[in-house]
Model the fold of this input.
Amino acid sequence: MIATGQAVTVPSSHGRARGVFDGLQLFGLVVLLIGLPFSEAAKSAGLALAVLGFAGKLVLGHRPQLGRGGVLAALGVYFAAAALSVIMAETEMRRPDELIALAMTILPFLLVLDSVVSRPSRRLFFAGAILTGAVVALLLWLGSYDAESFYRLSLGSIENPVPAGEYLAVCLVLGVAILFAEIRATAVGPFMVLLVGLMGGALVLTQARGALLGAICGVAFVVWATIRKRRYVAAVIAVAVVGTLVFAAANPDSKIAESFDFQSRNTQARLAIWHQTAGHILERPVTGHGHGSFSLLGVTYFDGKVVEYPVNAHNIWINSLVETGILGAGALLAYLALILRGIWSSLRRAGYPLDRALSIGTLGGGIVSFVAGVTALSVDAEPGMLFFTIAAIGISGPDSRNAAVGEVRDAA
Done:
């Protein structure tokens, strides 16, 4: 009788404990996603709690809901290539601490995917946390606004306007997709209109040109995927172009106005940096010079007055090639391609409007990162953590048994 009682009680207690750890993982991810754009403390604490919850589930016999597809393989190869690049790098170029930063950037993908695949309803929950965090960050910025010192908008924990713009661009596209699905809702519809308007205005104030172009492409995709009429896409592009021209004319000293001058210092600096970096790529084409080593390569730009020491190549692919070689850049490209294919597959299978909106919004967010990555490092730091999060949300739709994710088995 005692043995029988134990056989019934132990699994039940394990189930409750696993539920507690699952809740801890969920709570940690929400803290991370809300605090990501404005609080380093919330980001670190949220990620630590999510990892603790996930680890607790593993101890209790949880089998991660991560699928069997090529996405995880490509991501694993990418991290392995980054580690190999550090091992093979010259002694003075090795920065193993950068691997920790890379792991922290990638972890949200694994943690969110595990949390969402078994419970697809959490997709909307996490999307709401992302948008909430962006709004809170903007409200905090408004609260500390100083007209005399203000030049370009940045966020609390994203002090550089360029990655701040990339972050807001992804959130804007995700918000537009949800807006289309909820436009007729009595309360949510007007709220989403205000939210999208706030993020759109803030994105312009960052003057991050790559992010702005990425947002235009992302919103155009959302309109096409939702309405399926080319004239509406053309209208979005036309409005964006006219708005950009008007802003540039009204602010001739802005970065946006500078984009129309191909002889500007910024354009010439980008070209010079890419040219110098190409030479370094040829030096170590297979494994690169070491993940996170770009600032040690000695790449500079001198315009006759000021010397610029860039910390990255201002292009995701060039930067990946010079740091991790063909192995790392190829694995990253494979991962991104598989993610886009997986989200597209999830979109084709989605039935409910919000499910479709989340797939469309995350795919549009991926387009933002691709476009912004032409002139920036769009999968690094906070924008990178956001990218890997929306990738997990995107491929883990209600019918996530596709080639990218694999058949889901509930181990609970």
Confidence is low (pLDDT under 50) at residues 1-10, 400-412. Strands lie at 301-302, 307-308. The two ends are 26 Å apart (CA to CA). The CA atoms of residues 63 and 411 lie 6 Å apart.
